[in-house]
Structure formats: structure tokens, C-alpha cells
Design goal:
Strand content of chain A: under 5%
Strand content of chain B: under 5%
Largest interface: A-B, 80 and 87 residues
Structural class of chain A: mainly alpha
Distance between the termini of chain B: 46 Å
Number of helices of chain A: 8
Radius of gyration of chain A: 20 Å
Number of strands of chain B: 0
Distance between the termini of chain A: 34 Å
Helix content of chain B: over 70%
Low-confidence stretches of chain B: none
Helix content of chain A: over 70%
Mean pLDDT of chain B: 96
Structural class of chain B: mainly alpha
Number of domains of chain B: 1
Low-confidence stretches of chain A: none
Oligomer: heterodimer
Number of helices of chain B: 6
């Protein structure tokens, strides 16, 4: 469980010959650098908000997230996110941008099936996993904390 | 501007880059799908949040820890524990989604607007 389905051995051998090997090291470097720049930019934005606005801490942090999500949704709509996402890999998929993109992209992709059955029903195709496992994990963690008297 | 501006940015970069690197390793080295990787990171964030370690990391690294999706798990736990502190068991469920409202509501609202305005590429 948890792995991609594996192909037949003969097919795997053929693929190993034909498909260029995954450049894990290079991908990791790209993910680190792009993720680092992205997070630093978000941090800089928060510092700017802190310096030039009167927002309280919680609101300020939410505003940063909302702006990132809005920007990513726009880039998704324009079709620019895909190319960037393929190049940067986890550097763009792991931050909240991956979540925002998966919602916007699924809704847009299934638009032709209608706003309700297409966009509505498919909106949480990928983000659903994040929401479900986040809530389930948080429920059990908080329940354990409550039973241990740690809250 | 704070005096330690560059230090804050560096901390955010190192931690944020590190979490993305971990995600890429789960993609490439462990051969996991995007959905599995995200679920693992969110669950890990929730567990570290329950131990109180994720908030410490976020205090140190700012958006280095708050931008990656693992922060979603932590924020859920913080809301659930705050609710539990106020209202016991029921508070877990009433408080959990409060602090993540901004992220989820923005993603859905903006996604909906995008789906209305743009056309999918063929």
C-alpha cells in the first residue's frame, strides 16, 4: 500500500532502458532552492505587512496565505502554473501553493462537465486527501492530548 | 523593518527548503504519489503539532514552517486543542477548523472564480 502500482518485470526492464533515469539529486536541489526562495519571499511579505500595516499577528499570517493562494489560483487559470510546477517539483507542490493549485486546477479541468457535477464534485480530488488526513490526524492527536490532560 | 531581517529570511529559506526537499525525496526516492506525500506531511505536521514542536519550529522559521502543507496539520491540531481546552471533547470538533478557515475558504472561493472565468486548455 502507498506505492504506485508496479508494472510487469519485462516491461520494467524495457522502461529502464528507454526512460532516462530520474535525476533524484538534481530534483532535490531544485526543490530545496525553489522551496527556500518561496518561503523566504512569504516571510519577507509578512515582514512588510508587519512594518506597514496595523494587522494583528493572526490576520497578518492569514493574509500572506490568502495572497499566495490567490496568486497561485490566477497562475493556474492562466495556464502558467503547470510548466512551473513540473520544473520545480516539490518546491512548489509542498507549500500551500500545491493545495491551492490542486483545487483550482481540478475545478477548471472538469468545467466542461458542468459547474456542479464537474467543478463542484471534483474540486477536492487531490486536496481531499490533505483535508481528510489532516482532520483525522488532528482529531486523534487532540483526543489523546485531552485524555492525557495535556490541553 | 526588523534588524534581523536577513536572518529571518535565511531561517525561513532553510526550513522551507528542507521540508520541500523531504517532499521531493518522498516523490523520487520512496516513489510515492503526490496525494500520499501530502497526506504524510500533513499527518506529520499534526503529530508534531500535538507535541508542541511544530509551533516552536514555526516561531523560529516563520513562513519556512508556515507555508508548507505540514503547517495545515499543525494548525488543525492547534485549533482542536484550543477548543478542547475550552469545551472538552466537543471543542475538538468545534474548534478544529477555525484557524484553517482562511486557507480552505480562499482555495475554494478563488478556485471557483478561476473555474468561472477561465477556459480549460484542450
Amino acid at each position: 500500500m502507498g506505492k504506485k502500482p508496479q508494472p510487469e518485470p519485462w516491461f520494467q526492464q524495457l522502461m529502464d532502458q528507454k526512460v532516462p533515469s530520474k535525476k533524484t539529486g538534481r530534483n532535490c536541489l531544485i526543490a530545496f532552492v525553489s522551496g527556500a526562495l518561496f518561503c523566504a519571499a512569504a516571510q519577507l511579505f509578512e515582514i512588510l505587512l508587519q512594518t506597514y500595516t496595523e494587522l494583528d499577528t493572526d490576520t497578518r499570517r492569514s493574509v500572506v496565505l490568502i495572497c499566495v493562494i490567490g496568486l497561485v489560483a490566477l497562475l493556474t487559470g492562466l495556464g502558467w502554473y503547470d510548466k512551473l510546477g513540473q520544473k520545480l517539483g516539490a518546491g512548489l507542490a509542498v507549500p500551500i501553493s500545491g493545495f491551492a493549485n490542486s483545487v483550482a486546477a481540478s475545478m477548471l479541468e472538469h468545467k466542461s462537465e458542468g459547474m456542479v457535477l464537474g467543478s463542484g464534485c471534483n474540486s477536492f480530488k487531490l486536496a481531499g486527501a490533505v483535508v481528510v488526513f489532516g482532520i483525522a490526524a488532528a482529531f486523534f492527536v487532540a483526543l489523546i492530548a485531552l485524555l492525557l490532560g495535556a490541553v | 523593518m526588523p534588524d534581523d531581517l536577513w536572518m529571518q529570511l535565511l531561517k525561513a529559506a532553510v526550513v522551507g527548503g528542507g521540508i520541500c526537499l523531504l517532499g521531493q525525496l518522498l516523490f523520487d526516492a520512496a516513489n510515492l504519489t503526490t496525494a500520499h506525500t501530502m497526506s504524510i506531511l500533513v499527518s506529520a505536521g499534526a503529530i508534531l503539532g500535538g507535541l508542541g514542536w511544530y509551533d516552536k519550529l514555526a516561531d523560529w522559521a516563520g513562513f519556512g514552517a508556515r507555508l508548507p502543507i505540514s503547517s495545515f496539520g499543525n494548525t488543525l491540531v492547534q485549533g482542536a486543542m484550543e477548543g478542547a481546552g475550552k469545551n472538552g471533547f466537543w471543542g475538538i470538533l468545534t474548534g478544529m477548523l477555525e484557524p484553517v478557515s482562511a486557507g480552505v475558504a480562499a482555495a475554494v472561493a478563488f478556485g471557483f472564480i478561476i473555474a468561472l472565468v477561465f477556459r480549460p486548455k484542450a
